[in-house]
Amino acid sequence: MIVQNLRGGIYMVTALVVILVLILLLPFVVKQVEHNLEYFLFTMGIISVIVSKQFSAELFFHIFKNPLIYYITLAVLIAGLIFTLLKEKLKIGVEKVADKISLRLFAFIIIVILGLMSSIITAIIASLVLVEVVNYLPLTRKNKINLIVIACFSIGLGAALTPVGEPLSTIVVSKLHADFFYLARLIGIEIIIAILALGLIGTFFAKRESGIGEPTEDVEADENIKEVFIRAFKVFVFIFALELLGTGFKPIIDLYIVKMKSEILYWANTISAIVDNATLAAAEISPSMTPEQIRAILMGMLISGGMLIPGNIPNIISAGKLKIKSTEWARIAVPLGAILLIVYYIVLFVI
């Protein structure tokens, strides 16, 4: 019986690792997967919960009862409708500001302010504002994507400063029975420095292009109401898929990740690039942990969360609006994330 259980466990872990590899690779090599990433992740999520024997009606009821999934979808829908109705006024406003100040300075302000404000207005609202503003800047599509990716790193990091910003910070503060400013004290300096650095990096991509001021070519300028609803539905499917994946990979998290040392935890949590970081935090964070362990876990999650589109909600919203492909996102996000991970590993564990 013990041998059978052991074999079953090995088969399950092996299957989950295969699923993980498929999630990482297929969006980059199969165009149909890349263009239908939400439904692909949803399918992988279903398979993962079946493999890990977590599939049940209760699981689906639990996900459907999660108010966050409706809050995010509704925020995307309402903001989409508002921005669609007011797109001309928004375009004129962005153009006026961009004409009055340096575009590089404007890019720095967008990245830094939205990064810091995301802890108050939430990462969702910050990312919705981001894509609408950047969409009307006089930049090439490539530089718009670069700016969006960098800003999403900033928003993802900044939102963790308070329990208001994103689900990850809410769960951490709740599990540790900490006060409102606990995370700001714990990782505030590291995050603020990272946001300022990202703002400076963003200025290198804010090169004004004459004759380019219209919305990105892949985004229809006359986006209609129907498309806004479709985009909101896709966000709903995306979040549902992340919930399934978080549950499906829970056996691996419980068996291996939570037992690791801080240095290894830091790198192990790069799985946050494809798995919901709130789920990881719920499984890993414990009041018995030292501040150093918690800091390592959080920084690993937050940085890696920006590296791929499924990594966090700002990525999903931005990529959905501007129709950014997985390869386009990863081209800048993976190298940038890798550099940040190495730098902060040195800061946290070497210096």
TrEMBL record:
Q: Which UniProt keywords apply?
A: Membrane, Transmembrane, Transmembrane helix
What is the top-level taxon of the source organism? Bacteria
Q: What Pfam families does its record include?
A: DUF1646
InterPro entries associated with the record: DUF1646
Q: Does the keyword Membrane apply?
A: yes
Q: Which residues cross the membrane?
A: 9-30, 36-56, 68-86, 106-133, 145-162, 182-206, 235-258, 297-317, 329-350
**Claim: Transmembrane is one of the keywords in the record:** yes
Name the UniProt record assigns to this protein: Cation transporter
Q: Which organism is it from?
A: Caldanaerobacter subterraneus subsp. pacificus DSM 12653
Taxonomic classification:
Bacteria, Bacillati, Bacillota, Clostridia, Thermoanaerobacterales
